[in-house]
Design a protein that fits this description.
The chain is an alpha/beta fold. It is 36% helix and 15% strand. A 6-stranded mixed beta sheet has the order 2-1-3-4-5-6, with helices on both faces. Strands 7-8-10-9 form a 4-stranded antiparallel beta sheet. Helix 1 links the parallel strand 1 and strand 2. The mean pLDDT is 96.
Length: 261
């Protein structure tokens, strides 16, 4: 609403609500396909003369652009805002927030929902120039004049006051992500390189939808998407080591059962 008067640019495989919000507000959204390897091609966004929305690391792929690649997008779109959604950056990505000091057209947005385990609090924040922030405030007070509730504010403050707890959690998730990736590779899976708290994986032994359903039958929930390009993949959230061991054991049982048919 604040920045997309010239239209918007988003990836075809990314956080689903970018397109939803564009349609809701009557914004012309240019949908740009990811490359064959599911990475974002920075050249596709250079000089595009639209507001750019990029999740970095991306969802559901888990893949990430470098700060240098993001800077190239920002500086080639001087008259449009580039929004970098860093919901998952604490799990191994590199934040672009330093670019805010160099450019007045970048807005970095973050959330407490992922690495801070506060999804139910619905708390997030943005970092950008005074001018961009002033525009956001105008929109806020035009559409939703209410402040964040007091309990959420207290929970957010508590998170900031216990940085070590959350950084240790991120380290555990990264370790468990690497373990799970390695175990899936042993089972013949292709796993995209992830910088998030989930992995995106596929195998030739069973299609994604069937694997999702078989896992669900046995109490293990993963995500499956029906878009043609990614229908063979499942997205697996990383939990405790015990949870990931249970997941791997069940995947092994299912794939071995398929092979025996």
């Amino acid at each position: 609403m604040a920045f997309s008067q010239d239209g918007a640019a988003v990836a075809d495989i990314t956080y689903g609500f970018y397109e939803v919000f564009a349609e809701l507000h009557g914004i012309d959204a240019k949908v740009i396909p990811l490359k064959e390897d599911f990475s974002i091609c920075p050249d596709d966004y250079k000089g595009i003369n639209r507001a750019v929305f990029i999740a970095n690391p991306n969802a559901p792929t888990g893949m990430s652009l470098t700060v240098e690649e993001i800077e190239d997008i920002v500086k080639t779109n001087p008259n449009n805002v580039v929004v970098i959604d860093e919901a998952y950056v604490d799990f191994g990505g590199t934040s672009a927030v330093e670019l805010v000091k160099k450019y007045d057209n970048i807005l970095v947005v973050m959330t407490y929902s992922k690495s801070r385990s506060l999804a139910g609090g619905r708390l997030g924040f943005s970092i950008g120039s005074k001018e961009l922030t002033a525009d956001l405030r105008k929109i806020k007070y035009s559409t939703n004049p209410y402040n964040i509730n007091r309990l959420t504010l207290l929970a957010g403050e508590a998170c900031l006051n216990d940085e070590k707890y959350y950084s240790d959690n991120c380290k555990k998730i990264i370790e468990n992500r690497e373990y799970t990736t390695a175990e899936l590779v042993k089972l013949g899976f292709e796993v995209l390189p992830s910088k998030t708290n989930f992995i995106f994986a596929r195998t030739d032994k069973i299609d994604g939808e069937k694997l999702y359903k078989e896992l669900k039958k046995n109490g293990i929930l993963v995500r499956h998407f029906t878009k043609e390009r990614i229908k063979d993949y499942i997205r697996v959230t990383i939990g405790t080591r015990e949870q990931m061991e249970a997941f791997i054991a069940e995947v092994k049982r299912i794939t071995e059962g398929e092979a025996a048919k």
